[in-house]
Amino acid sequence: MTDSPNTVPNVDAGEIAKFNALAEQWWDPNSQFRPLHDINPLRLNYIDERVSLPGKKVIDIGCGGGLLSEGMARRGANVTGIDMGEAPLAVARIHAEQAGVEVEYLQTPAEKIAEERAGQYDVVTCLEMLEHVPDPSSVIRACATLVKPGGHVFFSTINRNPKAFMFAIVGAEYVLRLLPRGTHEYAKLIKPSELAGWARDAALDVKDTTGMVYNPLTQVYKLNRDVSVNYLMYARKGD
């Protein structure tokens, strides 16, 4: 890692404020976070099928209100969730306590915890987060630092092309109103080739890239090979 996270925090204050304001809605499946509820089973299954979560030590980067973190813990993983939003973390802690699910939640940047816990995790997840930070490559390097040799890293984000703009921003935020307006900025979206390049630069070996596609007629998400809009990427760290 090059710059110290203490001198150059990789945080967008506007993005943090955006999700802080929506925190109370996080666990409401009929709220503006409905898309996260809809895709969470797909994400969980994608991860679990590749790593077998029971007994694994996992860190969830950009955990927000804890949907994925808690889901992985329910499947038997030992989970730490980190985020820079104070309000979503408070919601995550309360929900986990009420549900009787044990998750360690911390308010810290990925780069800082990577310095403190290098090589301690079997699995690192960083889903729907990279498009909200100033320097995604820095977060990817932190993920690579956190995972053990031979460990597993999962990313998900949105492609950057005209179709993604029409579906993920115009369609999802303005037409179908699946997400609050302004959730995503087109310039911050990430092409799979860019994400794969940053992963390789961080000594991660990309194993799979899979698309997540939404059908507005059936209102159902599914995984397939179309990565033109939303996609997941799975990588491993060499032994």
From TrEMBL:
Residues given in the record as S-adenosyl-L-methionine binding sites: 43, 62, 83, 127
Enzyme class: transferase
GO term, biological process aspect, one: methylation
Keywords: Methyltransferase, S-adenosyl-L-methionine, Transferase, Ubiquinone, Ubiquinone biosynthesis
InterPro entries: SAM-dependent_MTases_sf, UbiG_MeTrfase
EC number, UniProt record: 2.1.1.222, 2.1.1.64
Highest taxon of source: Bacteria
An example molecular function term from Gene Ontology annotations: polyprenyldihydroxybenzoate methyltransferase activity
Pfam families: Methyltransf_23 (PF13489)
SUPFAM superfamilies xref list: S-adenosyl-L-methionine-dependent methyltransferases
The protein's annotated pathway: Cofactor biosynthesis; ubiquinone biosynthesis
Reactions performed catalytically: a 3-demethylubiquinol + S-adenosyl-L-methionine = a ubiquinol + S-adenosyl-L-homocysteine + H(+); a 3-(all-trans-polyprenyl)benzene-1,2-diol + S-adenosyl-L-methionine = a 2-methoxy-6-(all-trans-polyprenyl)phenol + S-adenosyl-L-homocysteine + H(+)
Record function comment: O-methyltransferase that catalyzes the 2 O-methylation steps in the ubiquinone biosynthetic pathway.
Protein family (similarity comment): Belongs to the methyltransferase superfamily. UbiG/COQ3 family.
Protein name stated in the entry: Ubiquinone biosynthesis O-methyltransferase
Organism name: Alcanivorax nanhaiticus
